[in-house]
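Below is how a single chain appears once it has passed through the pipeline. First comes the sequence as given, then the structure the pipeline wrote out for it. We keep one example in the README because the format questions we get most often are answered faster by looking than by reading.
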Amino acid sequence: MNISEAIRTRQSIGKVTEEEIPVSKIEQILEAGTWAPNHKMTEPWRFFVLRGEGRKVLGEALADVALATAADPSSPEAAAAAEAARAKPFRAPVIITVAVTPAEHEKVIELEEYGAVFAAIQNMLLEAHGLGLGAIWRTGAPTYHAKMNEHFGLGAKDKVLGFIYLGIPAEKQAPQGKRKPFGELTVWVDEAGPLRK
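Resulting structure:
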């Protein structure tokens, strides 16, 4: 599969089997992430590979966030939400938690560190697709909660940016996705002067 084909045919695949993923394939995906562009070669990404019982780390983090954000943490509804959150990581045999640890350097812009890690995530998703694996990048408000950092041993300036759920696709891939034509979202600038809508 060439790069153009991979970009255009990759899809988020949330339904996967419990079949184990070989470590060699997981390592290939992790390495792909490390080839993302990053200013000053800060390599601000951090990866946590959760397998087997290790997925409980994320489950407990999600449960803690659910309780911390509940209107009444002692209510049966909050307990049910926490229990549902604990089960979420068991939707895939492998989850790669991806975080950013921004470098403290006068010439490094923190926002660009985030951009580098987002680029790493895209590399990883494309690599997983090229390996025939199903993958989905899951995020949402609990991802960025302070309790998530606590569970993954991250510092105050660090941030979890998402979870890549990996597995063997459980269903035949859906038809190719659609995007707006790039022309609708592009302005060509060939001469100097102010740009206006």
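The first strand starts at residue 45 and ends at 51.

See the next section for the split statistics.
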